Amino acid sequence: MRQARFPAVDGLRVIAALAVVVSQVGLHTHAPLAGVVSRLDVGWAIFCAISGFLLYRPHVLAWFSATEPPLTLPYLRNRALRILPALLIAVLLSVVLVPHPSTLYLRWAVLTPLPFYLLLPGLGRLLTGYERPTRRSVRWRLLVLVALTILGPVWMAAVMATGHPSAGLWLPGYLGWFAVGMGMALWQVSRATGRLGPSTLDTLTRVPGTLWGIAAALLLIAATPVAGPYNHSMPTPAQALVKSLLYTVAVACMLFPVLTPTAGTVRVLGGRPARLAAKLSYGAVVYQFVVLGLLHGPFAVQLPVTLVGAALLAAISYRLVERPIAKKIAAAKTDSSVTKPSSSAAL
């Protein structure tokens, strides 16, 4: 089964970036509807789920086709080239331009996604090896991934209960969001190849509005005090568990419809504007911290300025740094596919 493109994922990635920027501006200002604005940090969870889906799927494809899994060193090189240049530039700009630079993005980048990227090759082999991909083995692995999604809420409650909130930035607190995407990758390939039969999930793919409505309702619930404070204040263990759990289910409802999208979903989330904006999404998220460090003002002013400023920096970075690197990655993947067709990975 060949590598497939999921055009609607581009639009979801853009939504995630916008949500993150709005939530961060809200943290720096007195935002209206503070509860709703603060919970837009669910964008981080969306990014994690998308990464889990795209990066684990090649392992599933290799398992089902009885070929070698993606090579570890090329995969790690491509991840580093995709993430580190913009991040390092943002750090440099912060040190030079911002009077009191925040290290929030550094902590997030180092303590959450990067450990997952390092862990994925081994985890991918563990979850796709040792036996043939039968319906039984697929279902067993889906159960393992469901268990991992529960780890995140439990971990967040535990670190709050023990008085170590900084440990909430460690990978276990976010692994469940990656596992959501990984589980959907396994389901999507299993369903496409006939390892799993028809189920209620197939019906849900045809009603994306219903799933997105459920996600919105869950986020509105999270916007109440039941999910904790609207700033960086320490929540209670129960609040931390509820917030993480609500985000996990909401992200699953957001991501699932874009895996087998309807024509309308592709038009909205997979069109040319979405594709172009998706290329700048990571840069915008990273560079927003530079812009926020230079601005002081009300939410209504700071939000549009931050969006425009982050987008401009992201566009410049993409043009001068990220696109040339992306071309090198694509060339490397082409060379790899010539020598070993099964070793390419979706980035």
Q: What's this entry about, in short?
A:
The protein has 14 helices and no strands.
Structural account:
This protein has 14 helices and no strands. By secondary structure, it is mainly α. It has one domain (8-343). The longest helix is centred in the C-terminal third of the chain and has 41 residues, at 299-339. One of its GO terms (cellular component) is membrane. It comes from Kribbella jejuensis. Keywords: Membrane, Transmembrane, Transmembrane helix. The chain crosses the membrane at residues 12-30, 42-59, 80-99, 105-128, 140-161, 167-189, 210-230, 245-264, 276-295, 301-321.
- Give the fraction of residues assigned to helices: over 70%
Number of domains: 1
Largest sheet: none
Helix tally? Answer: 14
Measured by DSSP, the beta-strand proportion falls in under 5%
Rounded mean pLDDT score: 87
| Radius of gyration from the alpha-carbon trace, in angstroms | 20 Å
What is the string of helix and strand elements?
A: HHHHHHHHHHHHHH
Q: Tell me, what's the shape?
A: globular
Low-pLDDT runs of 5+ residues are 340-347
SS class: mainly alpha
Distance between the termini: 17 Å
Number of strands: 0
